[in-house]
Description:
Elements lengths: L18 E12 L2 E8 L6 E2 L2 E2 L7 H13 L1 E5 L5 E7 L7 E15 L11 E5 H7 L3 H9 L11
Parallel strand pairs: 1-7
Antiparallel strand pairs: 1-2, 1-4, 2-3, 2-8, 5-7, 6-7
Amino acid sequence: MSAHQLPLSIVAAEKRETRTQFAALPFRVVDGSVQVLLVTSRRSRRWILPKGWPEPGLTPAQCAAKEAWEEAGVLGAAYELCLGVYAFEKERDGGPDLPVLAFVYPIKVQQTKQTYPEACSRRRKWVPLRKAAKMVDAQALARILKTFDPRVLKGHTV
């Protein structure tokens, strides 16, 4: 395990046990204003952050960056700093919803691509932080968005 990996279980012991995902907070600064990139979920079409399951050999920030590429088509610098955690219920076909804790990692976007793996199944939208906070359902995520300041990233590793 590297110094940047959290000791989190990848496999849940029971079907209803809380799972872990890593969420990307893709951001950019335009004319001094911070904007974040939200995507729609595939099923409900709600506005969310790109997120996915832990993967062996990848740090949480690397997992978040991989999801930012696959779900939002952005490439950038992933910071090894967890901005916060929020809880949600993940809908499943033919089974009960899964309780999930999402750990949020900032990604400073350097490139936005038009063609990316999930381009046909998601919408994406750049929005100011306060507007993004109003667009998401999870209140803990809204608080993370409202309080995000890229200046906290100074001195943290990419």
